[in-house]
Amino acid sequence: MLGRLAFVAVSVEPLTDETVGTIALGDLRVRRFGFGAMRITGEGIWGPPADPDEAIAVLRRAVELGINLIDTADSYGPNVSEELISEALRPYPEDLVIATKGGLTRTGPNQWPRDARPEHLREACEGSLRRLGLERIDLYQLHHPDPKVPYEESVGTMKELQHEGKVRYIGVSNVNVEQLATAREIVDVVSVQNRYNLGDRDSADVLEFCQRDGMAFIPWFPLNAGDIDVGPAPALAWLLAQEQVLPIPGTSSVAHLEENVEAARSATRDR
Fold first, then answer.
1. What DSSP letter does each residue of 71-117 carry, written as one string?
2. HSE (side-chain half, CA atoms, 13 Å) at 261
3. pLDDT tens digits, 10-36
4. Where are the domains of the chain?
5. Residue 2, pLDDT above cutoff 60
6. How many CB atoms lie within 10 A of CB 166?
7. 76: annotated active-site residue
8. Which of 76, 92, 151, 196 is catalytic?
9. Of 4, 100, 160, 211, which residue is most buried, by most CB within 10 angstroms?
10. Which CATH number fits domain 17-269: 3.20.20.100, 3.30.1050.10, 3.40.30.10, 3.20.80.10?
11. What is the pTM of this model?
12. Residue-level pLDDT at 104
């Protein structure tokens, strides 16, 4: 169904619901270990990857290893990550959830201007639908609050896109507790994606909000340990020990992907 795999490995066992557990995104359930598809683009998250074949192989291997949530954004590349996902994985497996985001633009490598105007979010959503080859995005996330736009307007546009059938569920990203509460007054938010890891716990209060209200908390940059010298397994074990947490480490290497999957298995096996 996924076409010819550019890489075949037998040493890593696929993840299952039993090995890593599952988490709800509305009425969807995914395994508590996803793949963040930012790093499959070029340097500075700009342009195509240096090795497109390896990027395709990483995506296909992720699905082969039991990962059924892939997180991306129109700004990754820009557009490149979504295009690679479509090329690698269509027709998509029935249980695969693709989450993407809108609300940032790109002016160059490592540059991320915000644009959460209603008209831009509509254009971004339409572009993601087209590139991914979807009629509806399972999880569409507002990438970042825009200080030039009232947050209520941005979230309200997300709600309109949902009512129009272009979006199944809505998530928000890079928010504080007050912004999350505002979003929840407007629409049913099923997930929050914030930076959170052993070395950066500034979003602990947002995680507590998610745990209390049953929302998935998707930490980005999950394996950073700051000054603590630990490998991926302890970092993942720390995250997975917390309720409602869904790590999405990313990579551009099949070998590194397999190491992360083994670390997730070890982390949950040793709990």
1. E--TTTBTTHHHHHHHHHHPSPPTT-EEEEEESB--SSTT---B---
2. 26
3. 489 999 999 999 999 999 999 999 999
4. 17-269
5. no
6. 18
7. yes
8. 76
9. 100
10. 3.20.20.100
11. 0.94
12. 98
